Amino acid sequence: MQALEALTRDARALANGEVVTAPEAEVARQMTICNACRYCEGFCAVFPAMTRRLEFGKADVHFLANLCHNCGACLHACQYAPPHEFAINVPQAMAQVRGQTYADYAWPPALGKLYQRNGLTLSVALAAALALFLVLAVATQGRLWGAVGAGGFYAIFPHNLLVGLFAPVFLFVVFALGMGVRRFWRDVSPATSGAPLSLPASAEATHDVLRLKYLDGGHGDGCHNDDDAYTLSRRRFHHLTFYGFLLCFAATSVATVYHYVFGWVAPYELPSLPKLLGAVGGLSLMVGTAGLWHLNRSRHPQHGDAKQKPMDLGFIALLFLTSASGLALWLGRGSAALPLLLCLHLGAVMALFATLPYGKFAHGVFRTAALLRHAVEKRQPNPIGLGAD
């Protein structure tokens, strides 16, 4: 019976010019069963969105997969979870499709396969290679070790050189991610009522993103990690990582304003705003990523897609290296080790930037887009007149 249903879905998709992959067909199968049960309807945004559908096409599956926060609550509550013959494992099925969407919507499309290769070893090796290149460049000038003087690290790498290195990469990251999420938005919008974005919907989605609402398990006690016990650890460490990253970005932005608007040239010291934001953000980022590393390594194997773990760990490692090397650079100011520390920090930052469009960072962008579409859709009349919004 399941084989017949799968063939029917595939035939319908092919008639519409779509190609349904095995992970997408599996999500559609599981959602059909969940739609009949609805025990998990109050857990997260996925299940209320599910009740507005009787069929699950490719766009619906992509939307639901990116709406899922992989908290694991539905797996531990499900009476049809493995070893039941229905084999319902929504977090794992959704994770597999999410990874596929990152590759499918990558820009340029030819680089989509980088998601499959962006692992821990590659990320750390790239950071080390870039740092080594900078070390050799500084060493050839005889400035790798020794007092720098009043110019700070700008005496080693001039400001305009750093801008010339990082500005094009940053602009490419923004453009590549923007192009990818634009295609995702265009594809899922018709499947989510097609209504335009409104101010109330935007406000609700922003609130949900900033609070990481759907990592509370639907009841406020948290989600699961390695067993049946509820824990808020994932939500807390995600918060530390998310806001630590934002604070570090804010520090760089404020420093840019200081430099170009007020003519206040770095380095900055406490209690300047860039240094306060950077120090707090760096510490928050270090603690958050260290916690997420531990949780990722100890997480139950049924909670996600094992093939994506190297990509997850690679992103976590680069965030940790960036924050740790940045704090070490500040603590080592005025010391003979400053040139070496600067090379290590710039290598980590460059590796992080280079992998942002084709790594785990994309999940935040696509999930935000899915939450925006969910906030729009839930304000429209239920197309099937069943279930709850």
UniProtKB/TrEMBL annotation:
This is Tricarballylate utilization 4Fe-4S protein TcuB. It comes from Hydrogenophaga atypica. It comes from the Bacteria. The chain crosses the membrane at residues 120-140, 152-177, 240-261, 273-293, 313-331, 337-358. The keyword Transmembrane helix applies. InterPro entries: Citrate_utilization_prot_B (IPR012830), NarG-like_sf (IPR036197). The gene is tcuB. The keyword Coiled coil does not apply. Keywords: Membrane, Transmembrane, Transmembrane helix.
